Amino acid sequence: MLLETEGLTKRFGGITAVDGVDFALETGELCSIIGPNGAGKTTFFNLLTGVLEPSDGRIRFDPPGEGDGERRALAGGGSGSTDSVLDITAASPDETALAGIHRSYQITNLFPTLSVLENVRVAAQASRGNDSWKLWRNVADFEDHYAEATRILERIGLAEEAETVTENLSHGEKRSLEIGVALAGDPDLLLLDEPTAGVSSEGVDDVVALIEDVAADHSVMLIEHNMEVVMDISDRIAVLHRGELIADGPPEDVRGDEAVQEAYLGGYGREGSEAAGADSEGDAADRDEDAAADGGRRASAGGESR
């Protein structure tokens, strides 16, 4: 098991945004998280990545491979433990990132005045932990960051735009670049929050092809409203409704689930019906929850324990 939540809950005053969610992700899976606006999808991602503190429940992460010890040390888990499972319930955003969970956001989150290459290079440097920012370092270390950034740009199809100022990219190219930034440091789990939102119909195919390529050697979770994309690329689909997990399984099983049809799909996949009437602009209610979360963000400078 790569990632597991147990009774994961988040309350904002009298509102329960995520309600007792038990969820598990296997290594190598591509799982889509779907549900109506305000279902708690982005809040769920924010809990997994340390942006929000859970009200109740646990989050465990078990990074695979030979990098376990290094990731545990970077994330504060201690490299001497024989148990590779990390309890990241109380981890900060930087600790979850160093443990091997990287993400993109609903709203483009790039340095607009830096070049495309520099955006990925900065992310590659940050993925090495606090020591990566020391002034007295071997210049070869920075060459390694640039080499990694260059490899990523080749993979995401933006190598020819390496020196382009990021704000001059198309929206679809910015979405691809966000995935490239999230790939820096070779995470074990990649969380993508509405990767096709706002992308033109012509650009969606490019973003989908990139996600499929990335999923070939990374575990991926994504929030997505485009049901054609979800049904086409997902190994598995989990459905949130009013903060609760109401369905979880292969696409065909979820498509035919009556509770899912009633709560969200609105007849998607039924004979003679059109695609679901989900709002492709994203979760307005989830964005309100994110705003409420600003007071709960744990910047490392704050040092607040939980």
From TrEMBL:
InterPro entries in the record: AAA+_ATPase (IPR003593), ABC_AA/LPS_Transport (IPR051120), ABC_transporter-like_ATP-bd (IPR003439), BCA_ABC_TP_C (IPR032823), P-loop_NTPase (IPR027417)
Keyword Nucleotide-binding found: yes
Keyword Nucleotide-binding listed: yes
Signal peptide interval: none
Entry keyword set: ATP-binding, Nucleotide-binding, Transport
Region ranges (Disordered): 264-306
PROSITE patterns the record matches: ABC_TRANSPORTER_2
ABC transporter domain residues: 3-267
Pfam family, one: BCA_ABC_TP_C
Gene3D superfamilies for this protein: P-loop containing nucleotide triphosphate hydrolases
Composition-biased stretches (Acidic residues): 280-292
GO cellular component: plasma membrane
GO MF terms held by the record: ATP binding; ATP hydrolysis activity
Protein name (database record): Branched-chain amino acid transport system ATP-binding protein
Native source organism of the sequence: Halorubrum trapanicum
Organismal lineage: Archaea, Methanobacteriati, Methanobacteriota, Stenosarchaea group, Halobacteria
